[in-house]
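Example 3.2
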Amino acid sequence: MSLLFFTILGPILVFLLLWVAATAYRIYFPEQPLPFEKDPVMLREKARRAGQSVPVGVREIRADQRRKKRQRAQILSPDYNYFWGGSDGFPEAWREDLWRRRN
């Protein structure tokens, strides 16, 4: 009976102890954030502005596409203030368009 008990309970206790140790380690020694100048996105932007060739991945391509889309939306609708994912609300033209398209 005790062999069955330790066979089931032993791995669970080992896992819980490892989890507690890893959590405590992450709390007491958190990862240090990268300085803004060392961020890969900022390094890529600096190299791009300097005219240097830069390796580009799918993430960067999608980020560029989203940035262009935001800039296009800003040109088409200058009264809509969108900045880093936040906005000041919807322009009145958008509200009217939504009202016309309602079900």
